[in-house]
């Protein structure tokens, strides 16, 4: 963002023997208004920078309702063709500018000719696309998004070039020099794409999608990396705050020049007290805005960690309810293993005990979940000795539910640990560590446990004929009944089923057929 520069010629024009109200008051007020606008822009850029730094990256299969950060490749069945570069894209924006001559008059009455550029044609187009990563895909509806594209085409030519009229309008501007400049930015199809936006439930099927939030939340679609966006917003914040400081100091100097007719150097000396006061006030406002942004960011990190823990707790309880159901189904084919199955069912009490500790008891939770995984291993060890279970309908349903549950646990654990890691980094760095106690944030240990699929199975079973409990006849079990009351499912239908999506095209942000 360019910093304001003082033009001595402008001051000479404004200085008169009898200053008007506009010169004495109006112009300094306009400069002060410019400083206020820069403060707002700087605060906006600082907020975005820290939000991108704080929010953990979600996986496509682990998206939850609310704000999500995603990284993957943008794909669609029928990609757009860019207007100038003719590449396959999901978004493009182009501009055609024409050079022309303009005559201006100097202060001394002499004229000179300037060459300037005027836009003669422009446009953009985008369409919904799917973001793919190693866990799955999610639909992104980019209408209302702020696009950060990459330059794909830039060429300046004259009338003899076929591009001049081939991609540009037939009519030109007055006093044209016969030169046109063509530029285009794109978000390529099949290339890495960064998305930061709100997830909602789709209207056609029960699946999440990323779209513009109703409350005006941030929505970014970028062909640039996360680090590139962070650097961009950092420079914007610095430039805006520096510009606000300079404008604040300039306002009293301009007023002194217009009211007293002093040269710039003498006016600066005469108004030095006001300059220091104005810049001090703006500096204090910048500091307050920065500390407020830091505090709000810490609170947001704390809430995200708690939200991630709640997601884990839901899946732990779901897994906890699946264990006795699996044991009951296996018992129909392995009644002589009753003692082993009874020991497995006793593990049901562990997850409830684990969830009581909350995020502060991650070590205890990890141990409890490992015990639960060991119980599941014993069940699956029994199924290897009884292959007929693989054809049992109840067993297959429970296995599918358990597989989905394990996938969700892995994704939720990764999201939780990423949230905790970012929070721990903030809490340990200046100036965040000064505000961390007030925001209620502190260092938290990540959650570590082993998935039951990866642990070795080494058990020995001794058949025992004593039965203290009767297992009834085979009963069809609906995995949906195992979900705790009040829980909400995340969708319907197989994950690998391809859905045909209606893809809309838009020009200048307006849908069209």
Rg from Cα: 32 Å
Helix content: 40-55%
Instruction: Sketch the major β-sheet.
Output: 7 strands, antiparallel
Structural class: alpha+beta
pLDDT < 50 runs, ≥5 residues: 1-18, 347-357, 451-513
> What is the H/E string?
HHEEEEEEEEEHEEEEHHHHHHHHEE
User: Which percent range describes the beta-strand content?
Assistant: 15-25%
End-to-end Cα distance:
38 Å
Strand runs, count? 15
What is the number of helices?
11
Shape label: flat
Mean pLDDT: 75
Brief digest:
The protein is of the alpha+beta class.
Record keyword descriptors for this entry.
single chain, 513 residues, alpha+beta, seven-stranded antiparallel sheet, five-stranded mixed β-barrel, 11 helices, 45% helix, disordered C terminus
How does this model look, in words?
- This protein is α+β, with helices and mostly antiparallel strands.
- It is built from eleven helices and 15 strands.
- It has helices at 8-14, 21-54, 162-166, 226-260, 264-270, 272-331, 338-345, 349-356, 362-385, 393-427, 432-439; strands at 57-58, 66-75, 80-81, 88-105, 111-126, 129-133, 136-140, 146-148, 150-158, 176-188, 192-201, 208-211, 220-222, 505-507, 510-512.
- Strands 3, 4, 5, 9, 10, 14 and 15 form a seven-stranded antiparallel beta sheet that branches.
- A hairpin with a 2-residue loop joins strand 6 (129-133) and strand 7 (136-140).
- The model is unreliable at 1-18, 347-357 and 451-513 (pLDDT under 50).
Secondary structure elements and their pairing?
Layout: H1 8-14, H2 21-54, E1 57-58, E2 66-75, E3 80-81, E4 88-105, E5 111-126, E6 129-133, E7 136-140, E8 146-148, E9 150-158, H3 162-166, E10 176-188, E11 192-201, E12 208-211, E13 220-222, H4 226-260, H5 264-270, H6 272-331, H7 338-345, H8 349-356, H9 362-385, H10 393-427, H11 432-439, E14 505-507, E15 510-512
Parallel strand pairs: 1-2, 7-12, 8-13
Antiparallel strand pairs: 2-6, 2-11, 3-4, 4-5, 4-10, 5-14, 6-7, 9-10, 11-12, 11-13, 14-15
């Amino acid at each position: 963002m360019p910093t304001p520069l003082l033009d001595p010629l402008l001051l000479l024009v404004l200085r008169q023997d009898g200053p008007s109200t506009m010169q004495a008051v109006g112009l300094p007020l306009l400069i002060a208004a410019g400083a206020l606008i820069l403060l707002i822009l700087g605060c906006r850029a600082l907020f975005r920078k820290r939000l991108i730094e704080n929010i953990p990256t979600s996986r496509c299969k682990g998206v939850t309702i609310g704000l999500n950060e995603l990284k993957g490749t943008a794909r669609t069945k029928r990609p757009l063709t860019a207007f100038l570069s003719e590449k396959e894209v999901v978004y493009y924006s182009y501009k055609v500018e024409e050079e022309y001559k303009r005559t201006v008059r100097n202060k001394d009455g002499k004229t000179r000719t300037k060459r300037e550029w005027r836009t003669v044609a422009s446009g953009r187009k985008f369409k919904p696309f799917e973001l793919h990563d190693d866990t799955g895909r999610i639909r992104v509806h980019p209408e209302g998004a702020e696009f950060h594209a990459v330059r794909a085409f830039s060429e300046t030519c004259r009338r003899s070039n076929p591009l001049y009229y081939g991609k540009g309008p037939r009519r030109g501007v007055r006093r044209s020099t016969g030169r046109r400049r063509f530029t285009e930015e794109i978000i390529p199809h099949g290339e890495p794409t960064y998305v930061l936006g709100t997830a909602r439930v789709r209207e056609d099927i029960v699946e999440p999608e990323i779209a513009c939030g109703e409350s005006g939340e941030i929505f970014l679609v970028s062909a640039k990396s996360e680090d590139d966006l962070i650097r961009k917003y950092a420079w914007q914040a610095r430039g805006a705050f520096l510009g606000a400081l300079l404008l604040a100091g300039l306002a009293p100097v301009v007023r002194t020049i217009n009211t007293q007719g002093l040269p710039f150097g003498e006016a600066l000396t005469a108004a030095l007290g006001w300059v220091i006061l104005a810049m001090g006030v703006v500096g204090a406002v910048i500091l307050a805005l920065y500390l407020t942004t830091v505090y709000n960011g810490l609170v947001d990190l704390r809430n995200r960690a708690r939200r991630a823990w709640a997601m884990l707790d839901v899946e732990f309880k779901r897994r906890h309810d699946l264990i006795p159901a699996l044991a009951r189904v296996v018992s129909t084919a392995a009644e002589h293993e009753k003692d082993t199955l009874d020991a497995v069912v006793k593990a049901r009490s562990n997850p409830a005990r684990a969830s009581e500790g909350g995020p502060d008891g991650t070590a205890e939770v990890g141990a409890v979940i490992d015990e639960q995984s060991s119980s599941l291993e014993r069940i699956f060890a029994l199924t290897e000795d009884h292959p007929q279970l693989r054809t049992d309908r109840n067993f297959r349903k429970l296995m599918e539910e358990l597989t989905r549950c394990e996938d969700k646990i892995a994704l939720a654990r990764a999201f939780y640990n990423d949230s905790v890691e970012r929070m721990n980094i903030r809490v340990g760095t200046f100036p965040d560590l000064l505000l961390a106690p007030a925001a209620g944030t502190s260092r938290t240990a990540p959650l570590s446990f082993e998935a039951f699929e990866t642990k070795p199975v080494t058990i020995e079973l001794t058949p025992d004929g004593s039965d203290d409990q009767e297992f009834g006849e085979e009963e069809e079990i609906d995995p949906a009944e195992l979900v705790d009351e009040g829980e909400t499912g995340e969708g319907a239908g197989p994950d690998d089923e391809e859905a045909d999506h209606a893809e809309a095209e838009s020009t200048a942000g307006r849908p069209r057929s």
